[in-house]
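Form 7-S
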Amino acid sequence: MVGWIILGVFIALIVGLCLIPVGFDAGFEHDALHMSAKVMGIQLQLFPREKGEEKKPKEEKPKEEKPPQEKKEEKPKEQKKGLPLGLSIQELLEIVKAVLRGLGRFGHKMKVDRFRLIFVASEPDPYYTALTYGTVNEVLSMLAPLCKKAFTCRDCEVRTGVDFLGNRMQLEFGLGMSIRIGQILGVVFGIGFAAVKVVIKSKLRQKREAKLNRPEKPNPEESAAPSDAEGDLVTEPENMETAVLTAAESAPDPEKTETKIDVERMEPNGEQ
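Output:
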């Protein structure tokens, strides 16, 4: 029973951790750059730091002089050829596609908490002022529908203006985004599993190619047969002389052959 309680608490902690939203908030506002991290809606300012948080410079201690050491000769390292892990170009492209798909899902899961853009065009020449103002509005009209499809924005403020009397362009930009830890882990694990799958397929392919290219071991019985046949053909001089003498002895004697033929031609009474 205690084990089940511990397991339930452990699962509840993991689920609660995955539901925690994290994010950031950055921008250039009021002529100053700022950046902060967000955890469960609480902002932790990263830049600029408050004056009290500035680190004091450490006192430099005098360095002790070490005796010069003899430099060892470095051997040139052998450069490895080919792609990492023996991957082919096609397999590497599959991993890149998996990463891009994962990043696409990551972008859809990100939520824009606030988006603020204030732009006021102002140039010494009124012609360039109007030209800059028209260009910025055209770019924003092109990006607006794409951003609406890719992100969910809670608070959006976009304003553009023109100032023919001023000599300085005004720009303020702010962006705050958040995502849950569970969604980040889901995207990361999805990319990792896809990459591991491609690597495993590559290793299996390399093993198959190694088996096909491996030379076959000769059979000892088959390798012994040619040697025996060669031994029968290639004989020593003494064996050659013995073979010649045996062939000469086995050859038929012409005198004995003629006598046998004459006996067969004789009549039954013994006369030819």
